[in-house]
Design a protein that fits this description.
With 320 residues, the protein is of the alpha/beta class. The protein is built from 12 helices and 8 strands. Helices cover 40% and strands 14% of the residues. The chain has an 8-stranded mixed sheet, sandwiched between helices.
Amino acid sequence: MKNLTRQFILIFLLVLPFVLNGCSGFRYLDAEPLEFQDIDYGFETHFIDLDDVRLAYIDEGNADETLILIHGLASNAGFWRYNISDLSADYRVIALDLPGYGKSDKGDFPYGMAWYADVITRFIEAQNLENVTYIGHSMGGQIGIILSLNHPESINRLVLAAPAGIEAFSPGSGNWLRGVFTIEGIKNAPESAIRENLSLNFHRWNSRWEWMVEERTRMAKTEEMDEFAYTVIQSIGAMLDEPTTQKLTDISHETLIIYGRFDRLIPNMYLNPGSPVDVFEYGHQQIPNSSLIQVDKAGHMLQIEKADSFNREVKNWLNR
């Protein structure tokens, strides 16, 4: 009975921000809508047309080795804004908006981890990129695992930042998680809930990341938000439907796993209570040629919360 009560409380706390409107913390209630194409990433945005989809991307630096940065669930290329300048001093750095996110095309695409890996591979080929290191955060990490397995020739090395795809979910857990999110729930989440949910990505929330709340709140006022919310839900389903936990031993690329010590999203605190070190240590043990780095005083968004440490550790690993 005690365990059931605890589980009920945890589920209630998870769902609460989605159903309460809250009474404080509203800063952007009267702000103008922010069209996806007008989001300021801090860098020039380029576009490329592949056969069926138009991709937006940031392209900085000029070097023989290219770092491709892939964002996580419900975010965009701008979430790498604290890393691009530093990394592009030594590498060519390309940060992509995945289809359905940011300034890339949205629509009735076959959203999935393998499909995303195929799109990224086609981008690499279209740009004639060689000597590529893939860096993926969270969902972008799971996409990277599949890209490494399905298209090993397209990249040289793999960096998994707080990656999804290592933690395993039971079918029942996955179905519950899938059912928590709806298009209407994502669209209509109040600003206070958005701020609360974003704060879970950090060890210590700081007001300098308020741009994320403003961006997300103002995006919700646009017509494109329906397609974005649809993409998020399809992505959640794809992460669950295309598990990679049992495939880690097949990764042949030299791999870095880097994560925040105080990650509160991996493992899922409601479905798989435990420690992030246990999850990522397991991934390190399973991936044959891997290194493991823990960043202190950082949560899930370690590339933002501890950007200097993240950049330094990634560069040290690349240059060792």
